[in-house]
From TrEMBL:
This is Nucleic acid-binding protein. Residues 27-62 form the ChsH2 rubredoxin-like zinc ribbon domain. It comes from the Bacteria. Residues 64-113 form the ChsH2 C-terminal OB-fold domain. Pfam families: OB_ChsH2_C (PF01796), zf-ChsH2 (PF12172). It comes from Streptomyces acidicola.
Length: 119
């Protein structure tokens, strides 16, 4: 994540990723509302965050694949205060860790569901 300010902003942004040639595919899919994972052709395991090699077996035979959208909630917390811009303007929000059906564990924000409905 970068801390570069945006044009005309006075405070640094901590929510803007640094997009490069490798991660462009990932961020373009995210902009379309799709989550991509990397899957290893050698060991068959999926991983997240995107890397150019498999963190399980170190193979470079990895490809992009869409996530199913299914996950199990591992843990969550309602964030009532955050001093990093622009997150403080969005409180309260639900920060969570989920286990994706494909295997990887990742952080996410739970939307359209109040914290009282999470189990």
């Amino acid at each position: 994540m970068g801390s570069k300010g945006t044009k005309g902003s006075k405070r640094p942004r901590f929510d803007v990723p640094q997009v490069d040639a490798f991660t462009r595919t990932y961020w373009d899919a995210a902009a379309d509302g799709r989550l991509l994972l990397r899957r290893c052709g050698a060991c068959g395991r999926a991983h997240h965050y995107p890397r150019e090699f498999c963190p399980h077996c170190w193979s470079e035979d990895v490809t992009w694949e869409p996530a199913s959208g299914r996950a199990t909630l591992y843990t969550w917390s309602v964030v009532h205060r955050n001093d990093l811009p622009p997150f403080g303007e969005r409180t309260p929000y639900v920060a969570a860790v989920v286990d994706l059906a494909e295997g990887p564990r990742m952080m996410t924000e739970i939307v359209e569901c109040g914290g009282s409905g999470l189990r």
